[in-house]
Amino acid sequence: MAVSNNSANIEMQLPVMEAFYTLQGEGMHSGRAAYFIRLAGCDVGCHWCDVKESWQTENYPLLSIEAIIAGALAYPSRLVVITGGEPFMHDLVSLTDGLKKAGFEINIETSGAHPASGHFDWICLSPKKFKNPLSEIYAQAQELKVIVYNNSDFKWALEEAGKVGKDCNLLLQPEWSKQEKMLPLIIDFIKEHPEWRMSLQTHKWMQIP
Fold first, then answer.
1. What stretches of the chain show up as alpha helix (H) in DSSP?
2. Which of 17, 86, 104, 136 could disulfide-link to 99, CB 3.0 to 4.6 Å?
3. How far is Cα 147 from Cα 46, in angstroms, rounded to an integer?
4. d(CA 71, CA 37)
5. Which pTM does this prediction carry?
6. How far is CA 150 from the centre of its chain?
7. For residues 135 and 125, what is the distance between their CA atoms, to the nearest angstrom?
8. Which residues of the chain have pLDDT under 70?
């Protein structure tokens, strides 16, 4: 899927907080080997975010597109997951064009709060109440992943599901610190609303990066 923010200036460098090879631990692609590129910068401000250190771009080096792609090519999987922070704070056209030319399948995890840019095979939209997604992202998402922190998130999840396409996969995922309380409630909710699926942070259960 190709999306663009019509930016005239294509960034040739991006602030990379970290990049690592592991298994995708959550969502529809859970269990797959993937190279993660975590870009720095986020203005959404989730108080329960487990990577708050990714919010400030100035704390991390700017890496060239060539260096980022070279890092991904060092591993056998040809699945890349671009995450953050909020990756759509950056123009991703050059990065995704380069990754495509190198033969990668490209997934992105986004809150949808900034205009989309780049070329993706899979967009995981994880909306946040703290900063609403832009309306155009809903039609582009293949996966809607709602983080459940409290009881009000179930009603909100149903509202968000009404905005995505009919083929979008619907997932509920307990916030890690609240999982003991919220997991039984999610199970009951999915039994009543079978169009939804459970997503767990299996990488945390398995204690892998």
1. 65-73, 93-101, 137-140, 152-161, 179-192, 202-205
2. 104
3. 11
4. 9
5. 0.89
6. 21
7. 12
8. 1-11, 48, 50, 52, 203-206, 209
CA distances 16 to 60, 67, 199, Å, are 6, 11, 26
Instruction: Write down all domains in the chain, each with its CATH number in brackets.
Output: 2-205 (3.20.20.70)
Q: What is the Cα–Cα distance from 35 to 129, expressed in whole angstroms? A: 28
The single-letter code of the amino acid at 42 is C
Which residues in the chain belong to E strands, given as ranges?
Answer: 2-3, 13-23, 33-39, 62-64, 79-83, 105-110, 118-119, 122-125, 143-148, 169-174, 196-198
CA distance 148 to 174: 5
Q: Who contacts 130 (Cβ-Cβ below 8 Å, separation ≥6)?
A: 44, 45, 46, 47
The Cα 120–Cα 1 span in angstroms is 5
Rounded to 5 degrees, what are φ and ψ at 50? -95, 5
Radius of gyration of the chain from Cα atoms? 17
Residue 91 Cα distances to 9, 88, 112, angstroms = 8, 7, 14
Mean of all residue pLDDT scores within the chain:
90
